[in-house]
UniProtKB/TrEMBL annotation:
Xref: InterPro entries: Ub_conjugating_enzyme (IPR050113), UBC (IPR000608), UBQ-conjugating_enzyme/RWD (IPR016135)
Record-linked CDD domains: UEV_AKTIP (cd23814)
The protein, known as: UBC core domain-containing protein
Disordered: region residues: 246-266
SUPFAM superfamilies, per the entry: UBC-like
Domain UBC core, residue spans: 57-204
Family matches, as PROSITE patterns: UBC_2 (PS50127)
UniProt organism field: Tetragonisca angustula
Length: 266
């Protein structure tokens, strides 16, 4: 959010959660991106009554969380909405386990008073037959992993939990889909067939048009050989190591360690 807002639009702007318009300070005193993000999240809220300041601080917290999420999460991608930073779009590519091969979309909704307000809500947009996922709403029962959301908890931990429940299904989970839980415990073959069906359906919906008008919504397009083959080849082809070349002029005589031992060329 840049520039000076006029009074007429001030109240309207305070209600809207926009994309990240503030940048992190360039001078981090040598701190890594990860440590800087943690410091920003753990920073105590300043005692100011300005609502505008609160919005700025909240966006810093959200941006810091997003930076942490980009550290080392494989097979799962998230990005905050361009229109509302409290909503994150996500896609999970399941690489192992009974749901292997599935591509599942989900949204993460942060509380209005984030980083306070409890655990963010995870809602799957792609139907999944799973004991921890409510069949009608698609909401994930996060209380199995986070019975209480603490200030020390991070969104990347919640994202890891999404990968975890799709990689390994535990019979002891606090089920919100009792049919799935019952089949998992008493008739695994039927449960597996139901899972395979939802995996297949997820693949059929990969190229569907976006359900929301947001430039940050994650979309996919079919593979086109004329377009993608050259890019694929460039990615897979190992890069040739360049021979180390001396930079600048050397004033050291070969075989000597004495500075300026090499006579000036005439």
């Amino acid at each position: 959010m840049s520039g000076i807002k006029n009074d007429a639009n001030k109240n309207d702007n305070l209600k809207r959660q926009g994309s990240f318009r503030k940048l992190l300070p360039l001078n981090t005193n040598g701190d890594s991106q990860l440590s800087m993000s943690v410091k920003m999240i753990d920073r105590p809220i300043a005692s100011q009554t300005s609502k505008e300041y609160t919005v700025y601080l909240q966006e810093y917290n959200i941006l810091s969380e997003y930076m942490l999420c980009s550290q080392d999460l494989k097979g799962i991608y998230v990005i905050p909405s361009a229109q509302n930073s409290l909503i994150w779009f996500g896609v999970q590519f399941v690489r192992q386990g009974i749901y292997q091969g599935g591509i599942f979309r989900f949204n993460i909704t942060l509380p209005q008073n984030f980083p306070d307000g409890g655990c963010p809500k995870v809602t799957f947009q792609t139907p999944i037959f799973h004991p921890l996922i409510e069949p009608e709403s698609g909401e994930l029962n996060t209380s199995w992993e986070f019975p209480e959301w603490r200030k020390s908890n991070r969104i990347w931990q919640l994202i890891q939990f999404i990968t975890k429940i799709l990689t390994k299904v535990d019979i002891k989970m606090n089920s919100v889909n009792h049919e799935a839980s019952n089949l998992l415990e008493n008739n695994f073959e039927i449960f597996r067939d139901r899972v395979k069906k939802c995996v297949s359906e997820s693949l059929n919906k990969v190229y569907n048009a976006p359900t929301v008008d947001d430039p940050h919504y994650i979309t996919f397009s079919p593979y086109v050989e004329e377009i993608h083959n050259s890019i694929k080849k460039e990615i897979l082809q190992p890069k040739e190591e360049e021979e180390s070349k001396a930079l600048g002029l050397s004033w050291v005589q070969p075989g000597s360690l004495q500075p300026f031992s090499k006579p000036d060329a005439r």
